[in-house]
Amino acid sequence: MIYFTADTHFCHINVIKFCNRPFQDIEQMNKILIENWNARVISGDDVYILGDFLFRGTGADANEIIKKLNGKKYLIRGNHDRFIDRKDFDKSGFVWIKDYHTMYYEKRKFVLFHYPILEWDGYYRNSIHLYGHVHNCEGEPKRTVALGGSAINVGVDVNNYYPVSIEEILKMVQTPNSRNATFMNRGG
Q1: pLDDT in tens, 73-105
Q2: Residue 117 backbone dihedrals phi, psi, to 5 degrees
Q3: Residues contacting residue 67 through CB under 8 Å, at least 6 positions apart
Q4: Is 23's pLDDT higher than 80?
Q5: What is each CA distance from 54 to 45, 99, 133, in whole angstroms?
Q6: pLDDT value at position 187?
Q7: SS (H, E, C) 19-69
Q8: CB-based contacts of 37, cutoff 8 Å, min separation 6
Q9: The whole model's pTM is what?
Q10: What are phi and psi of 34, to 5 degrees?
Q11: Percentage of residues of the chain with pLDDT beyond 90
């Protein structure tokens, strides 16, 4: 299976308040995010992380968390992924690290980027854009409504703190109005 996620912000205490996450502290948040990840993802699965994996933690913190997470991990660099350049970080925990990635699934193009893009490669040819960065900010639906139904926020804050499968993404794209209702019901 293929999964997507974004904006886990492991080790970031302020994200709990900023995004109104239901955690008491970073230890609880990290623990639950890891448990949720591993409840869905098994060792052979691919997981594309669309940025902001860890914030305020060290390279050693990132190494420890990566080892606890199931699956083969791919990282699209986010604006807070500074741990990548630390000497104590082992990049081999990721299959690759990129700024942007295009992939295909069942002859459909997927454009992966940390930030929402107003118009992406294949926009007029039924491609799907997956992004993060905007979390569950109050203005997110207003800011991203122009993206249309083929752009999906895969961030943990709008997906009950779980990775999202590619099959779930395809269902969301087929029924964009239900996606908006789901987002609004999750506190967005």
Answers
A1: 999 999 998 999 999 999 999 999 999 999 999
A2: -115, 135
A3: 93
A4: yes
A5: 21, 16, 13
A6: 38
A7: CCCCCCCHHHHHHHHHHHHHHHCCCCCEEEECCCCECCCCHHHHHHHHHHC
A8: 5, 47, 69, 70, 162, 163
A9: 0.89
A10: -65, -45
A11: 72
Q: Rounded distance, CA 182 to CA 175, Å? A: 11
Read off the tokens for 135.
Answer: 């979390």
Strand order of the β-sheet with 97-98 is 97-98, 72-76, 46-49, 2-5, 164-165
Name residues whose C-beta falls within 8 Å of residue 165's C-beta, 6 or more positions apart in sequence.
1, 2, 3, 40
Q: What is the CATH number of domain 2-185?
A: 3.60.21.10
Residue 182 banded pLDDT, cuts 50, 70, 90: very low
Q: Which residues, other chains included, contact 109 with Cβ-Cβ below 8 Å and sequence gap of 6+? A: 102, 103, 121, 122, 125, 126, 127, 128
